[in-house]
């Protein structure tokens, strides 16, 4: 039996779960309009442990949603998970943010799910998964236009989920597109993915692990008057 602590901070949803093997036994999360991770993350960790009647010493590994997503959110999550792994002397597991999102949609044979996270202007972070949640196109930062995802929607129902789907809704008109902007990354779906990696001993190097930013962080300075 493995007790796993799972942290999701890639978007506005500050989410913490504890799982026993691949089953969730505690979940604390809050999807605030503004990022609240620095205030809430460690509180949620303690509350989740209390809900599960566990202590830090019971944890066998910690998993983190590695991105893509918010630069600030990812940094907060990775800093927290590194501190936990070093102090508890447990392994670090990384979970692709878009893959855990994809698993929130129940698919029928032949259907496709594309998690899309909002980036700047008309840009999104996206990845394409088939009905078995296998990645059939790699993660990209891309600008949405009328031809986006045309190779999939012509023959399949395509679910566009996440914060970037509102951008897509205004541009993509094929009837096979289904949009759901309410879906956010959550530590709930991380449990099964983390346990699979735990069993396979697919661990990260705690000292050198970095989030998957996908593109460079740009600091926008105010224009001089």
Helix content: 25-40%
The H-and-E topology, N to C, reads as EEEHEHEHEEEHEHEH
Shape-level CATH architecture of the largest domain:
2-Layer Sandwich
Helix count from the secondary structure assignment: 6
Q: Report the portion of residues in β strands.
A: 25-35%
The CATH C-level class name of the largest domain:
Alpha Beta
User: Spans with pLDDT under 50 lasting ≥5 residues?
Assistant: 217-225
Dominant shape: globular
Placed side by side, the strands forming the largest sheet appear as 3-2-1-4-5
In CATH, what is the homologous superfamily of the largest domain? Answer: ATPase, nucleotide binding domain
Number of strands: 10
- Average pLDDT value? 93
Described by strand count, sense and barrel closure, the largest sheet is: 5 strands, mixed
Q: How is the topology of this model organized?
A:
Blueprint: E1 3-8, E2 13-20, E3 23-31, H1 37-51, E4 61-65, H2 71-88, E5 92-95, H3 97-102, E6 112-118, E7 123-129, E8 135-143, H4 150-153, E9 158-161, H5 165-169, E10 177-180, H6 190-199
Parallel strand pairs: 1-4, 4-5, 6-9, 9-10
Antiparallel strand pairs: 1-2, 2-3, 6-7, 7-8
Helix pairs in contact: 1-2
Task: Give a quick summary of the entry.
The chain is of the alpha/beta class and 225 residues long. It has helices at residues 37-51, 71-88, 97-102, 150-153, 165-169, 190-199; strands spanning 3-8, 13-20, 23-31, 61-65, 92-95, 112-118, 123-129, 135-143, 158-161, 177-180. It is built from six helices and ten strands.
